[in-house]
Amino acid sequence: MNAADLEVLSNNALASAAVVFFLAFVAHIWEWAQARSLPEAGRTRKSVLVGVDVGSRRTASAVAVPSGAHGGTGSVDEKKALKVDIYGRIGIALTVLAGLLNFVAVLTRGLAAERVPWGNMYEFATAGTFAFTAVYLLLLRRYELRWLGPVVSGVAVAVLMLAVLILHEPVAPLVPSLHSYWLVIHVIAAVMATGAFTVGAMASALFLIKKRAEGRETPGATGYIARLPHSSVLDRVAFRVHAFGFPIWTFAALIAGPIWAQYAWGRYWGWDPKEVWAFITWVIYAAYLHARSTAGWKGKAAVISLVGMATLLFNFIGINYFFGAGSLHSYA
Amino acid sequence: MWRQLTSMRTALILLLLLALAAVPGSVVPQDRVDAIRVGQWKNANPTLAPIYEKLGLFSVYNSVWFSAIYILLMVSLVGCFVPRIRIYWRALRTRPPRAPKNLAVLPEFRSFETDEPAEIVLDRAGGVLHGRRYRVNMDDREDGATVGSVAAQRGYLREAGNLLFHVSVVVVLVGFAIGSLYGFRGAVIVVKGQGFSNSLSQYDDFVPGSFFDSDDLAPFNLAIDDFNIDYQRNGPNLGMPLDFTADLTYQEAPGESARNYALKVNKPLQVDDNSVFLVGNGYAPYVTVRDGEGNVAYSGPTIFLPQDATFLSFGVVKVPDALPEQLALEGSFAPTYGFTMERGMFSAFPDVTDPRLSLLAYRGDLGLDDGAPQSVYGLEKDELKRFKTEDGRDFRLDLSLGETIKLPENAGSVTFDRVERFVRLQISKTPGMGVALGGVVIGLLGVLCSLFVRPRRAWVRASENDGRTLVELAGLDRSSNDDLGDEMDLLARSLREPAAPGSEPQEREQS
Q1: Which residue in the set B436, B437, B444 is minimally distant from A247, CB to CB?
Q2: Residue B476 is part of a domain; what is its CATH number?
Q3: Phi, psi angles (nearest 5°) of residue B498
Q4: Are the Cβ atoms of B265 and A243 closer than 8 angstroms?
Q5: What is the ipTM of this complex?
Q6: Residues ≥6 apart with Cβ < 8 Å to A108
Q7: Residue A257, class by beta-carbon neighbours within 10 Å (0-12 exposed, 13-18 middle, 19+ buried)?
Q8: Total of domains in chain B
Q9: Tens digit of pLDDT for each residue in B392-427?
Q10: N or C: which end of chain B has fewer CB within 10 A?
Q11: CB distance B25–A276 less than 8 Å?
Q12: Domain assignment of residue B271, yes or no
C-alpha cells in the first residue's frame, strides 16, 4: 500500500468511526429512553444502569442484571431491565468498535505521512478523540462509567465532525521545527492529558447538573439525570480522572514543551500565545485540585474544572484562529 | 491579615487571578516576544498605544501588576507550606494515634465476631496492616488482655509530595529569574557569504538580563558559507519547507582553529554557554544605485522581510549618499514572479526561480540626520517625494535579475545585481535552565505523591466477651479518593479466620 492508499484508508476509517460513534450514541440514548419506564433508579435491588446506592459503594456493579431475569422467570420489570441492559451493552460494543476504527485512522494516517500522526489540528483532534474514548473505555469497568456513554459517544461524533468538516488537511510533511522526537513525547502527553480532562469535564458537568437536580428531586423520577449515580460518585470520578490528567499535562506543557522549545526556538519559555494558554490551563487545573481538597468547595471545583476545559479548547482552536500569525504554534 | 493571605481561599483567588492576568499577553503583542509586531501595532493604533504602554500591556509578564500577583501568590504559598513542614516533621516522628473510644462513629466501620482470642486477632491485624505498608502502633495490646486495640497510619508521603510540589514552584521561579537576570538573548541577520562576530554592536536586537555583563558573550565569530532549504516540490503542500541547513564556519575565539557546523532548526550550535539557533530566513537582493551625478551611491545586499510562506518580501533601500538629493526605494521582492490583475505581484514559489523586484522610488530628505532612531525596514516619508511618470502616475521599477532601470529626470539608475539568502540567528545564554527543569521534575514527582498516595488511619479493636471476640475496625481517610470503604472490607476479610467457611464476603473487590 502506498501513502495515497493509506491516506484514503485513514479518511475512510475516520468516517466509519464517526458513523459508529453515532450508532453508539443512538444505542445509549435508546438505553436511557427505555430506562425511563423502569421503576425509580437506585432503590430497587441492584439497579441495572448505575446501581450505585448512596450509602454503600459495594453494590456498584453497573452491568449487573437482576438475578431473577435469567430464564425469563422474572417480572416484567426485570425483562425490561434486561432489554435496557442489552442496549447499553450494544452502545459500549459500538464505542469499542468506533474506538478501534479511530485508532486505525490515526495509525494509517501516521503510516501515510511517515511520521507521528499529530502534526496539525486535524490530527490532534482525531488523536484526541481516540484518547478520551480510550480513557473512558479503560476506566469503564473500574469506575462504572456507563452513565457517561451517551456523553462520550455524543462528544466523539461532534469532534470528529468538526475535524472532518473544518480541520481536515491532506497528509503533509512537518515543518522543520517539528523534526524532533520531543514532538512525539510532547504531543502524545498533550493528547493523553486532553483526553483525561475531557472525560473529567463531562463528569464535572454531570456532577453540577445532578447536584442541582438532587436539591429538588421528585420521588419516582426516572430520567437520565435521576438515574445518574449520586453526585458524590460523579465528583469522585471527575477528581480521579483529573488527577490522572494533571501530572501528564504538567509533563507535556511544562517539561517536554519547554525542552523542545529550547531546541527549536532557542528559549524554553517565551510567552508564545500557545504557551500562555497552556500555562493558564495548568494554573486553572491546579486551582481545581486545590479547590477539590478544600472542604465545601466541591461545587466550585467542578466549575473551575469546566473553566479549565474551556481554556484547553480555546488553546486548541481559538489560538490558531485568532492569533494564528502571531503564534509559533500556528501549525498545530 | 497574615492568616488571610495564607488561606486556601486567597491562594485560589490568586491562582485564578494569575490565569486571568496572563491572558492579555496572548492578545497584545509583547516586546520580548516580537518587538517588530509591537511596533506595527503601535503604528496602527496611535491612540491606544500610549494607554497600553502605561498599563504595561506590551510587557505583561514583567509588569507591576503581573509581578504583584505572582509575588503575593509566592508569599501565600511560602506562608502556607513553611509551617506545614514543621507540622509534618512532628507528625513523622509521632506514633499513629490510639484508637478512639467509639469506633462506630467513624466514617467507615466494620465489625464481626470470632472465636479466636483478642491477642491473636490483634497480632494478625498488626501483621496485615504492616504488610499493607501501615505504620503500626501496638501500645494498646497486652498479652493475655481481653480487650486491646491496634492503631495504624499510612500515606506519609502524600504530605511530603505536597510540600515538595510547593517548594518546587519556588525553585522553578528561581531558575526562571536566574535566566532572565543573568542571561541574554539577541538576534542578528546574516546574509549568506557574510560573517558575524559575537559582540554587542553586531546585534540587530538584543535583550540583556538585568545583571548582564558583556563578558557573558563568548568571543566567537562565524560565517555563513551556504544555506539550503529543501522544498516540497509536488502535491498539495507545494512550497512547504522540509528542512533548513546553514553551513557555517566558526572560531570559538579569535586565533582558534576554524571549524564547520551544519546548523539546523532543532540543532543549535553551542559555544561555551552561548547557543546559536537558526530561527528564520529570507532574501537579501543586491541592488546598485547610481545617483544623478553618475556615481555609485549604494551597492550591496538589503534585507527584505518575508511577509508570508511564499516569501513575498518587503524591504526598503535607503541611499543617503546620493547627490544632489537623497534617494530611497521601497517595495516588494518575489523569488518566483507571478502576477494577476486582482492580486498584483505575488510569489508563486518560495525558492528563487524568477526573482523580481517591484519598487517605488523616492527623493528628498531621509530624515536620518535629526537623531531620532529609524527602522531599517521603514521609510520616514515626511520629507520625501515619490517619483512620477510623465503622465503623473507613480513611477514603479519592475526589475528582473541583472536589469537596470533609469530613474526619471536623470535622477540616477537602479540595478538588480543578484539575490542571496539571509539567515536569522538567535544567540542566547540561559543560565538557571537546569534549576528550572529540575524544579519542574521534582514538582511533578511531588504532584504524583500528592495525588496518588492515600493517607489514612485504621484502628482495630478486639474485645472478648463470653468466649466470643468482637472485632471492630474503623478507618479515617484524608485523601480525596474516597475508597476507604474497600480498604476496610479488605482488612476485615484478612482478619477473619482464614479457614472459616462462608466467611468470604460476596462483594467484588475494588481498589
Answers
A1: B444
A2: 3.30.310.80
A3: -55, -35
A4: no
A5: 0.78
A6: A6, A7, A9, A10, A13
A7: buried
A8: 3
A9: 888 899 999 999 999 888 888 999 999 999 998 989
A10: N
A11: yes
A12: no
